Amino acid sequence: MLCNTFLLLLFLLKAVNIRGGTTAVPELLSTQNPPESTTTSAQCQRPTLPDKVILKADSYKEIYEKDSTAKLECEPGYTPATFVSRTIKCLGGIWTETKFRCKKKSCGALKDIPNGRYLITEGIEFGAVVKAECNLGYELYGSDTRVCKLNGWTGRDIECEVVKCTEVPTIANGKPEEEPYSQYEFGQSISYRCNKDFDMFGDSTITCSKDGKFQPAPPECLKISCARPEIPDATRTEGRSPYRYKSTVRYECNRGYKMNGEGYLVCQKDGWVPPPPNCTMVTCPTPQSISNGRINDPILNIYNYGQTVTYSCMEGFRLRGESRLSCIETGKFHPNPPTCVRTCPGPPVIANGEFDPVLVRYDSGQAVTYSCIKGFRLQGASKVSCSEEGTFKPNPPECVETCPTPPTISNGEFDPHLKQYDQGQKVTYSCPVGYRLNGFSTIICSKGGKYHPPPPTQCELHWGAIAIFTTTPLALLALGGALFLRNKKNAGKVAVKTEEDGL
Known about the structure:
Complement Module, domain 1; 7 domains; sushi; four-stranded antiparallel sheet; mainly beta; signal; 3 helices
């Protein structure tokens, strides 16, 4: 008895009335164990059905006897999704399994909208909502929303009609180029023209826009003229009256005046553009001061065009550049201010020498070059420059006396061989074997360009040496060879000397 009661409670918990319900309840599977065989347990409670599946009205009961059947159908707005049996049977307290399912009913495709479209975001099944919109320049008449309901789409087919402009603008002192229509459709245009002697301002063509109005605003037809500009101290270089719309004129300021503004003007709707300029006298500020110099004229805060100033330098300095500057059109003095450069007196004079260039005075940085007269050599820097202190630096060079090339002697030679010989320079003479020097072997270049002691005269044959040298036949042979070579050498010198003398 307790077992039967438990099973009855279990079936009562699982059974619900689904007519008109919207919540899905899991279906009862046929795999449940059948209850114990009693008269009561053989009955079935109201079945639990798949989502959107309901009992037909004639099958609706609270208790179903064993082997009784119930018929199924879909909720309103839904249609069978499978072609299977729509009947279930009560078998020993359990309903047979059903594969019958339902799906949303379709309202079908919507008719295309000429010059518009539907915005379908939820599909076309039961409950879906779609919006309609028209192309640019078209407007929708009626509701823009349709809903898929039990009997199909709500509302009627939507129409998009072209936007029309019915108010054609008129303008003063002008008219449309062609006879206007009573109304214009979206995108159609009207072009205007002005009467003679009137100028058009704005776009000549206007168009019927999406809001049913013409855009942009229609043009204006105005008669424009500009008065002749009066600009003191200026001269007109281009343009002449009368000045109508877009007439031009150009002005330039007179010499000594500068222009504030633009000289090229155009006659526009509101007058001259840009506004006429004005000409003011050119002025220059106080000119630049210079080091070691001054401005001789009166020093002013402002100088008018054409005024001049003069510069001068202090003692010991010389003006480099133009001394007179003038205030010119640019508002500056011209040329650039001069500079005062330090000057030096004539450079030091050196004995037996001279310098170049020779000037009355020398500017700082200017150099002179020293040179010596013949028979003297420069000792020290050859160039000296006028310094910022007003003296030449470095110290001037000296011209030191030189000696001539030492004389040559027969059968002898000297050393060193130089281009010139300064005071104190030593020269040494020597003779070959068998000869001896007639005079001093070493001489020194002394003051006055002379050698001291005097150079030797020659290398003469030393007979005493010959006597000793010739004690052997081999020595005699050597002596003979030496004499032969000496005579040959002397003969060559005589030939060269004869050629030099033109003999």
